[in-house]
Specification:
The protein has 288 residues and is of the alpha/beta class. It folds into two domains: 225 residues, 2-enoyl-CoA Hydratase, Chain A, domain 1 (Alpha-Beta Complex), CATH 3.90.226.10; 48 residues, Lyase 2-enoyl-coa Hydratase, Chain  A, domain 2. Helix content is 50%, strand content 17%. α2 links the parallel β3 and β4. α2 packs parallel to α4.
Length: 288
């Protein structure tokens, strides 16, 4: 149940897109979007159609011009029902398994993996996963693929595929890159056991957790507002550089790249305005 303040926040959003799997809303004056998985009957599973729909929506979000009414700087990813996401639809996987459709099986995992990679590598908006309960297998992968995670105390994260003979190899990619303790990540993969929001916070997997679901929306929105107060162009520029440098091993190469990025950043219009505003002791007025 939402508290009064979150109910008011929700009413301010205009629905941009909606189907049986998700709805996307934008709060125009805050430049914050909310993407909600809304197929609780199927535990918000990442079915073939769900992945297709979400992939198209992420690309549409990325394509929005700064001047567009539907442009957002920050995207909150959340879900309806008692489960954040149960991961892949095992009924679909079994059907492909029964048909020995090996190429289709690979495509199923590849399309999902491509969507996860797109969120971090190509989507300029900052994404925040708002996790209220179970994030399982590819559902855990989806949360970990977001730039930030806020969870309630009732949330849990798991990659239990090993328990049914299917090692969570693709969810493991996002999991390993989200946790400070890689041995803990490996333990999750080989035991299939879940970890609580508190454990996830201790291992650097999530940014913060709150005591109850009533505060979850409020705290997630507060974080989104803080981020969205900055230049969207600068945020997108910085996000792309952040993930690119993570994959570089040579420290000298990393600093060369980062120095070049900062020099380019200085030429961004909002950066010119920001530095000018600082020297003139006034608030910056970012256009993007």
């Amino acid at each position: 149940m939402l508290n009064k303040s979150s109910s008011l926040i929700k009413k301010c959003f205009g629905v941009v897109n909606k189907n049986d799997n998700f709805k996307y809303e934008v709060l125009n004056d805050k430049k914050i979007g909310i993407l909600t998985l809304c197929n609780p009957k199927k535990r918000n599973s990442l079915s073939i159609q769900m992945v297709k729909d979400l992939s198209e929506q992420f690309k549409d979000i990325a394509a929005q011009d700064y001047a567009s009414q539907n442009y957002a700087k920050v995207i909150i990813l959340k879900s309806e029902g008692t489960v954040f996401s149960a991961g892949h639809d095992l009924k679909e996987i079994k059907e492909l398994q029964d048909k020995n459709a090996h190429e289709e099986q690979k495509q199923l995992f590849q399309r999902c993996a491509n969507m996860m990679a797109y969120i971090q590598q190509s989507l300029p908006q900052i994404t925040i996963a708002q996790v209220h309960n179970f994030a399982t297998a590819a559902g855990c992968q989806l949360a970990c693929s977001c730039d930030l995670i806020v969870a309630s105390k009732s949330a849990s994260f798991s990659c239990p595929g090993v328990k049914i003979g299917l090692f969570c190899s693709t969810p493991g990619v996002a999991l390993i890159r989200s946790m400070a303790n890689q041995k803990k990540a490996f333990e999750m993969l080989v035991t299939g056991d879940p970890i609580s929001a508190q454990e996830a916070y201790q291992h650097g997997m999530i940014n913060q957790y709150v005591e109850n679901n009533e505060d979850l929306e409020k705290e997630t929105f507060k974080l989104a507002e803080k981020i969205a107060s900055h230049s969207g162009e600068t945020l997108g520029f910085g996000k792309q550089a952040f993930y690119k440098q993570k994959n570089m091993n040579d420290l000298g190469q990393v600093y060369d790249f980062a120095s070049s990025v900062m020099a380019q950043n200085l030429r961004i219009e909002d950066c010119v305005e920001g530095i000018k505003a600082f020297t003139e002791k006034r608030h910056a007025h970012f256009k993007k």
